[in-house]
Amino acid sequence: MSAAGQPDLFNGVLETGMRSVVVLNEFSPIELDREQLSLLDYFVVHTSQAGGPADMHPTNAGSFSEYHVRRRRIEEGIKMLVRIRLVDIVPDPDRGACFRAGDDAPGFVDLLNSPYNRELVDRARWLRASHDEDSGFLAGLRQRIERWVIEFQQREAPGGTT
């Protein structure tokens, strides 16, 4: 639920977990840390703000604040995928913990064929291509978030412009 008591249609644990799987798949074999994954989770649905295709989710003046909510939700999403048997943890004596599709994964993966999810994959591919072309791409995304936070704080400060 959002702070206003409305359901988080786009940023619930399941949706965030699904986007994480899509982004990680597109960036494979690159390993992403939590901050990078949080940035990419935001920009995969707000790609126009990074110079890419049209946004998949509505954008408004406070959209950047979603970024701060997502970090915890991403972790919860990955844990949930393990709990609901979409991902199994398999111990490997040489490599430690490994992951494989769980028994319920095929039904879930079938859902990934929806138009929304095809667009999500396309935008994750765009983010990966942008990253491959520009080594500073992720740092640039981080700077945009930081700039928006400052602009928002200035607008919301007493005497700030709205």
Automatic annotation (TrEMBL):
Protein name: Threonine efflux protein
Species annotation: Aquibium carbonis
Lineage of source species: Bacteria, Pseudomonadati, Pseudomonadota, Alphaproteobacteria, Hyphomicrobiales
Superkingdom assignment: Bacteria
A Pfam family hit: MC2
